[in-house]
Amino acid sequence: MTDLRTAIHICDDWIDIQLPNQETVIAAQMAFSANHHWTEIVPALGSIAVQFDPAVISPDEAANIVRDQLDHATSTSDASQSTINIPVCYDRKLAPDLKHVADRLGIAPETLPSWHTARAQSVAMLGFMPGFAYLDSEEECPAIGRLPSPRQLVKAGSIGIIGRQSCIYSFDSPGGWPIIGRTPLRLFDPAKEQPALLSPGQTVRFESISRAEFENWTRAKDQ
């Protein structure tokens, strides 16, 4: 990993590390998770923060450990990550902004599902609410932007997109991302050993399904 020492900032019992891309954030998270010094690890877009106990180690000691672990992250940055297929229904009733997004992309609305499923994306981070996934694509994409006025209700499983970044809503909630489809999968299930379906570093592939398949999948999930 590139020398990132000048990008390390200490504030009380937290250390914030600015990183060049999301791949290095994931590599750093993997390295930090294998160490017992951190009481909390918080990845974000382009950065990661770790919390330490000042009663156990000093800020300077913590910063040195961070530097050593960032060096170790070099060998983990190429670690293989899993791929998960996410079924999505692009029916207009589940995709209220499909035409708006297609217009911004300069493509016909009926071709947006094939455009979207052809793009490989990776999970950049989880946040906003449990299981809510932020995705990032390395492929170029025109800026789409958020809606002028957020919706009071976006249904769980909705797929939002603002350009190279997209998201999957894990619960019903307000939201301002343009919605182009919905997955019947449950993004967060507290009854499972690993509650969140997605995790940072995973590659996501979207697969188009019909409205009938969506309804069948939803009924089976709720049984």
Overall description:
The chain has 223 residues and is α+β, with helices and mostly antiparallel strands. It contains five helices and 13 strands. The strands form three sheets. Strands 5-13-6-7-10-9-12 form a seven-stranded mixed β-sheet. Strands 1-2-4-3 form a four-stranded antiparallel β-sheet, with helices on one face. A two-stranded antiparallel ribbon has the order 8-11. Strand 9 and strand 10 form a beta hairpin. It is elongated, with a radius of gyration of 19 Å. The N terminus is likely disordered.
How would you summarize this macromolecular structure in one to three sentences?
The protein is α+β, with helices and mostly antiparallel strands and 223 residues long. The protein has helices at residues 22-33, 59-76, 98-105, 112-117, 211-222; strands at residues 8-11, 14-18, 38-44, 47-52, 83-89, 121-126, 133-136, 151-154, 158-161, 165-168, 173-175, 179-182, 203-209.
What labels describe this entry?
13 strands; four-stranded antiparallel sheet; disordered N terminus; seven-stranded mixed sheet; 223 residues; 29% strand; 25% helix; alpha+beta; single chain
Q: Which range does the strand content fall in? A: 25-35%
- SSE ordering: EEHEEHEHHEEEEEEEEH
Q: What is the β-strand count?
A: 13
Overall geometry comes to elongated
Helix count, DSSP H or I runs of 4 or more residues: 5
Helix content: 25-40%
Poorly predicted residue ranges: 1-6, 75-80
Rg of Cα set:
19 Å
